[in-house]
Design a protein that fits this description.
The chain is an alpha+beta fold and 457 residues long. Helices cover 56% and strands 16% of the residues. Strand 8 and strand 9 form a beta hairpin. Helix 8 crosses helix 9 and helix 9 runs antiparallel to helix 10.
């Protein structure tokens, strides 16, 4: 049984149980009340009958009888008995002769006042001693309320139960249909989505609420999955191209060199070309492996307390070896006076790699024009800002800069593999920081790294 039918059945059963409990409670308490109320009516009539039958004052007795006839309505099947008990042995005969319950007469003799019912006939009896003779005054009547009103109430509860059952089923079906229709539509739409058409999305529901939240959550998941698929597709495509190019060159150079005997100089030239392509292949492979390693969790890293300004100075020293004659300037104007606001917890080698990657890009794509790096801080973060006056990145290509092997369309004249930016972003990310890049073509690029300050005890 599916969830929709389960909900329908449960709601129907719940409504039926509620009607049964409520109706049964009403029936039970009303029935008890009707018994108590009817006995009180009989008790009143028995008490008045005893008084006017055994009242010594005839006038008062007649007045009581007149009042009873005037103000107390006759009950259904009402009968009045005045019995004289001469001996205990006469009780069975009296009971048979008057068609009264023998047990009622015996109990009344003992207790002086008794109630009894047999089926729908109710009795109220009083013992009255007069002139040394024991009398029993008995009033009986049929409980009209129990025989008619209770039956009517039972019928009403029964009809109400059937009506509520069908109404509950109808409401449950309507409710489950309207609640599960959008879910069914989501399921149908999701079943249509595969890796071949992952661009499809679930349409928004016309009403706000949890269904729309579910749709937006699922569409967000599809967005992330699509981005991941596209990234992997581009990565595989670009990686295959980047790796196959030097391999093809190596194989081609070796084949050409082996076609015929060559001079030592020619073999040396061929080996030099092969070595260059092999070095290029090594760099690509190492970059790919390092990019994969930066996807590890931060608890895999060895962190230490570092000063950001010292990282920048050390990065500039590394750049002195990588690009001699660079024009990198460390702007000290934004440095905080409090050295505590320069300290972060991080992995020194990774952060040096991230900063030198950004400085290398800034110098390379600005044709070695001046590059400025500055360090500032807030109450909770350290900010490293690198700006250049290079070729910039086209606005429509900014969203691809973190894709492995992606290179902007205006970088064809510059060497590179397109791994530096995604590698840098991974390093910043595992340090719980953010990387923001802004760029304008022919104006320059600014890269801002924000890292959390170290929490010192």
């Amino acid at each position: 049984m599916n969830t929709r039918n389960k909900i329908t059945l449960l709601l129907a059963i719940f409504n039926a149980v509620m009607v049964l409990v409520f109706g049964g409670s009403v029936y039970y308490f009303l029935q008890n009340y009707s018994y108590t109320d009817f006995y009180k009516r009989l008790d009143t009539r028995a008490s008045i009958a005893a008084r006017y039958h055994f009242e010594s004052d005839t006038t008062d007795a007649n007045n009581l009888k007149a009042l009873r006839q005037e103000h107390l309505e006759m009950l259904d099947g009402e009968r009045e008995y005045v019995l004289s008990i001469s001996a205990i042995d006469s009780i069975p005969a009296l009971a048979r002769r008057n068609d009264l319950p023998e047990i009622l007469l015996r109990k009344t003799l003992v207790s002086g006042k008794e109630r009894f019912n047999s089926g729908n006939t109710f009795y109220s009896a009083i013992r009255q001693d007069s002139n040394g003779v024991v009398h029993l005054v008995v009033v009986s009547a049929n409980n009209y309320y129990d025989s008619h009103h209770q039956v009517l109430l039972r019928n009403i509860i029964g009809v109400g139960l059937v009506f509520t059952l069908f109404l509950g089923i109808g409401i449950a079906v309507y409710f489950s249909k309207h609640v599960y229709d959008p879910i069914r539509q989501i399921i149908d739409k999701v079943n249509q989505i595969s890796t071949n058409n992952i661009h499809l999305r679930v349409d928004d529901y016309e009403k706000d609420g949890e269904i729309n939240t579910l749709i937006h959550t699922f569409n967000g998941l599809l967005d992330r999955m699509e981005t991941t698929f596209e990234t992997h597709k581009n990565f595989i495509s670009n990686a295959s191209h980047e790796i196959s190019t030097p391999l093809t060159s190596i194989i081609g150079e070796a084949d050409v060199a082996l076609i015929k005997d060559r001079s030592g100089a020619e073999y040396k030239e061929a080996l030099t070309n092969i070595l260059q392509q092999a070095e290029r292949l090594r760099q690509i492979t190492e970059s790919l492996l390092f990019l994969a390693q930066t996807g590890y969790k931060e608890n895999k890293l060895v962190l230490e307390l570092l000063r950001t300004d010292e990282l920048v100075w050390e990065s500039i020293k590394i750049m002195d070896k990588l690009i001699p004659g660079h024009q990198i300037k460390f702007d000290l104007n934004l440095l905080p006076e409090n050295p505590v606001k320069l300290k972060i917890m991080g992995n020194k080698q990774l952060l040096l790699l991230a900063i030198t990657n950004l400085l290398t890009n800034a110098c390379k794509y600005s044709a070695n024009k001046p590059v400025t790096i500055s360090v500032g801080s807030t109450n909770s973060s350290i900010i490293v800002l690198i700006t250049d006056k290079g070729i910039g990145i086209p606005e429509e290509e900014m969203k691809f800069i973190y894709d492995p092997f992606f290179r902007a369309s205006n970088t064809k004249l510059y060497d590179g593999y397109g791994i530096g930016m995604p590698l840098t972003r991974n390093i910043v990310k595992i340090h719980k920081g953010t990387l923001v890049v802004t760029s304008t073509v022919h104006v320059g690029t600014s890269v801002q790294i924000t890292l959390p300050l170290a929490i010192l005890s």
